[in-house]
Design goal:
The structure is a homodimer. Chain A is an alpha/beta fold. The first copy, chain A, has 14 helices and six strands. Chain A has one domain: Rossmann fold, CATH 3.40.50.10210. Chain A has a six-stranded parallel beta sheet with strand order 3-2-1-4-5-6, with helices on both faces. The N and C termini of chain A lie far apart (about 65 Å). The interface between A and B is large, with 60 and 60 residues.
């Protein structure tokens, strides 16, 4: 299968990449602030747009960043834990939605087009074979994870391979000139896996971070919480070892998203984190590669219970809250729109001097 | 001067227009909801984007609204109350910024271009004459308002004329095919006027709704609050009469914005309200024409103290909070971007049937 190299090679590659991720050079934050403070507006009056512009300058090491090549990478995979009845939708919806992405009919297609981004669809581990398509990248690690309520979701080898697959995608799109990348997901059952991840890493009870997903009722939610608790007590993931958490209660697309984040940090590309599932991937990434956090831009506050705990643990503050919970990268797409607006402010606004506008009298 | 008709004619025109503003037809909300619920996503999972799409369908009476013609109308005027030392910037900045708008160098130019909107700059009452420009509309009511700390800011005739000027602009741009309009402002001193308006209409003490504006210090803020209290106690505006409030403590651009809102409600065009100053205009509009509220879309939660009281009184919930406080229409521009995203969801996403995706199993 694609995405799978030799385990030791993959593990070594991941270790090497993680060791090369450094914090952005702080001097660019200072230079960007100086530039912003000369623009024709009261100091700081564009609030978080200014912070966003500074972060992108810092990450890219470019005082005039132009986000002309934008990608949303939507990672799809299936989850063995669906056998426990934790989703309101049948498993085949993962496959059906991947085809919907490829035909351009999903929410993520519409919002990506709106902001001028290209959608990259990745088969990280859908439960059946997909027809070939020029818009589909095959990084299949397996035909869905195993049922985490009965054992580990995947092997350590698969966990590493899923992350490497994500990194490889960033390397490929960096060559194509990617200036910003948004994360996205599709996978029936993946809010269960994501709740398990945040429960373990943040050290909070599953009931505090488990929500209705795509539309469970109260009874379904109670069952979902029990399944997560069972999976955690059975597999005993090590909260301080992101790879172990990914292998035991994660998903292939979540590993892929962790890889996207680490890959973006490695290639110095800002990475816009979508909602709950992408947040789980970001938690895995931060556990493995703490410096990757400074490359993350949190897009929206998801409705899904547990997302706030995730953001707090990551130390991220989402840009907006529109009560969304679709996934796919839809929040990331809107976030990229704001990121682009922020750098345009930096690049296109006139300075006080250029415009002949008087500065504050003080 | 432009924008000034005969008082009785203007008053009659305003009354006639207000009497013709009706609530949007609720049947379109139902039809839009049905359409949204057939799209390939869990029910309601796009949250406020779905509400926004429904509102725009309801306002326009069109199940496939296309927001291809977008305008930000930035209204500029001066305020006599600057004599009281309530602003951190000198009065000439109003004029200088209008020229900056016309040359395309301001924040609103950059963000409007980003979302594909045209900026319409209106001289509602700048304190000096402006050079003619094809992009500038002259609706000058006067050379700045009078100092409200010493008497009424304007006459009743001027208040009505400023609102009529805003309505006329909507009529003109509706003919050009405007599908959505954002409000914007420029006017040194106008947070003082806006705080006075919200203090009077919401019935709260000036100290609760007065903020730092473009950058006052603590001493400046204390003075600003005293000036507002003095203006209110001297002029005694009637809290239940928006026209009286506008005349006594308002501004020409705020009257213009109230006119934009009423004009949009009259012409069935969604109107996106910017921040604090536009919120004051929206309060005047709601007081004069309560049904106009259903045509308003609140864009962002402003940093400026008092904006939350304003939104609560209006019954509006802003779409996002990016800690912005620039005005000009910058928040409205980002809000229009979201509005356009919302109707594209409605128009461009595939249905479950079209995409062959299974629906929720329940």
């Amino acid at each position: 299968m694609a995405g799978k190299g030799n385990f030791m090679d993959n593990k070594e590659k991941l270790g090497l990449i993680v060791s090369k991720v450094k914090s952005p050079d702080k001097k660019y934050y200072v230079l960007a602030q100086e530039k912003l403070d000369n623009l024709t507006k009261p100091l700081g009056s564009l609030g978080r747009l200014e912070e966003l512009a500074k972060q992108i300058v810092g990450i890219s090491g470019n005082l005039e960043p132009v986000l002309d090549k934008k990608y949303i990478v939507t990672m799809a995979a299936d989850h063995g834990v669906v056998d426990e009845g934790i989703s309101a939708y049948p498993q085949e919806v993962t496959l059906q939605m991947v085809y919907n992405f490829l035909r351009g009919g999903a929410g993520i297609n519409v919002l990506s087009k709106h902001i001028g981004a290209e959608v990259v669809v990745v088969d990280m581990g859908v439960a059946s074979d997909l027809e070939k398509s020029p818009s589909l990248i095959n990084k299949k690690i397996g035909y869905g994870t195993k049922n985490m309520a009965k054992g580990a979701a995947m092997t350590s080898e698969e966990a590493v391979a899923s992350i490497i697959a994500g990194i490889e995608i960033v390397e490929e799109y960096a060559k194509k000139g990617a200036k910003i990348i948004g994360t996205g997901d599709m996978g029936i059952g993946n809010t269960t896996s994501s709740s398990a991840i945040v429960s373990v890493i943040a050290g909070v009870d599953a009931s505090m971070v488990t929500g209705y997903g795509t539309g469970l009722d109260e009874k379904g939610l109670a069952n979902k919480i029990e399944v997560i608790k069972k999976a955690i007590s059975l597999n005993k993931p090590n909260p301080n070892d992101g790879l172990d958490v990914l292998a035991k209660v994660g998903g292939f697309e979540i590993g892929g998203i962790a890889g996207l984040v680490i890959g973006c940090a490695y290639m110095k590309i800002p990475v816009v984190i979508d909602g709950f599932i992408s947040g789980a991937g970001a938690m895995i990434a931060q556990s493995i590669c703490p410096a990757s956090k400074e490359y993350m831009i949190a897009s929206h506050q998801s409705v899904e219970k547990g997302h706030k705990v995730m953001m707090d643990k990551l130390g991220l503050k989402p840009l907006f809250n529109l009560d969304m919970r679709l996934g796919e990268g839809t929040g990331a797409a809107l976030g990229i729109g704001l990121a682009e607006a922020s750098v345009k402010i930096l690049n296109e606004m006139a300075t006080f001097k250029e415009a002949g506008v008087s500065e504050k009298s003080s």
